[in-house]
Design goal:
This protein has 226 residues and is α/β, with parallel strands linked by helices. It folds into two domains: 118 residues, Response regulator (Rossmann fold); 95 residues, Orthogonal Bundle (Arc Repressor Mutant, subunit A). It is built from eight helices and twelve strands. The strands form three sheets. A five-stranded parallel β-sheet has the order 2-1-3-4-5, with helices on both faces. A four-stranded antiparallel β-sheet has the order 6-7-8-9, covered by helices on one side. The two termini are 28 Å apart.
Length: 226
């Protein structure tokens, strides 16, 4: 499951992201509203954990309102130090699916996130991702190309999962670094190209059609078409 955490407080962000990763989530953290809005609007997420009070002109309610205006139904859990009833009502009416006042216990946050995902079924009920004859099983961590099992390392599995979740879309090197490596550094590094080359050797070698395509100067795309 992919979770976007938009929280400017370093300690709170580390607390939430660390717990979600231990629970099996693939987490991307943003510390400001502008970056958070960009990622929330342009990428696919299973759930968004969103601080209401953010620095700058783009606050939490602006983000969730923009997502709803774009027609995105991604579940959003709002975090806020504003715990009064009227503030919680405002957050929910702005498009939030749940509202958790600060301070909070991580166990409650996780339970609320899991509840949001259950409510979102059947969209999130699938346990497999499929593109052409490529199948990735999210429960058993097995990958098949036709009737051939593919052995992947954990990082390769995460990379393939991200590409499959964004089927048909070009994903940039920066997007891959943030989503798969959980870090932000020079997108010109060749670590992504090396991993893609290894993944191609397992997914596309000796199979047709090739599924991993290069968008020169931009990134990569996974699809059955050329």
């Amino acid at each position: 499951m992919r979770c976007l955490v938009i929280e400017d407080d370093v300690e709170t962000s580390s607390y939430v992201c660390g717990g979600l990763r231990e629970a099996g989530f693939n987490v991307l953290a943003c510390d400001n509203g502008l970056d958070g809005l960009h990622h929330a609007s342009n990428e696919s997420w299973d759930v968004v954990v969103l601080d209401r009070l953010l620095p700058g002109k783009v606050d939490g309610l602006s983000i969730v309102g923009k997502l709803r205006d774009l027609g995105k139904t991604t579940p959003v859990l709002i975090l806020s130090a504003l715990s009064a009833v009227d503030e919680r009502v405002r957050g929910l009416r702005s498009g939030g699916d749940d509202y958790l006042p600060k301070p909070f216990a991580f166990s409650e946050l996780l339970a609320r996130v899991e509840a949001l995902l259950r409510r979102a079924k059947p969209a999130y009920a699938a346990t497999q991702l499929r593109v052409a004859d490529l199948v990735l099983d999210l429960q058993t961590f097995q990958v098949m190309r036709g009737t051939t099992p593919i052995s992947l390392r954990p990082r390769e599995f995460r990379l393939l999962e991200y590409l499959m979740r964004n089927e048909g879309r070009v994903v940039t090197r920066t997007m891959l670094l943030e989503a798969v490596w959980d870090c932000r550094f020079d997108p010109q590094t060749n670590v992504i190209d090396i991993q893609i080359s290894r993944l191609r050797g397992k997914i596309d070698k000796d199979f047709t059609p090739p599924l991993i395509h290069t968008a020169r100067g931009v990134g990569y795309r996974l699809s059955a078409g050329s």
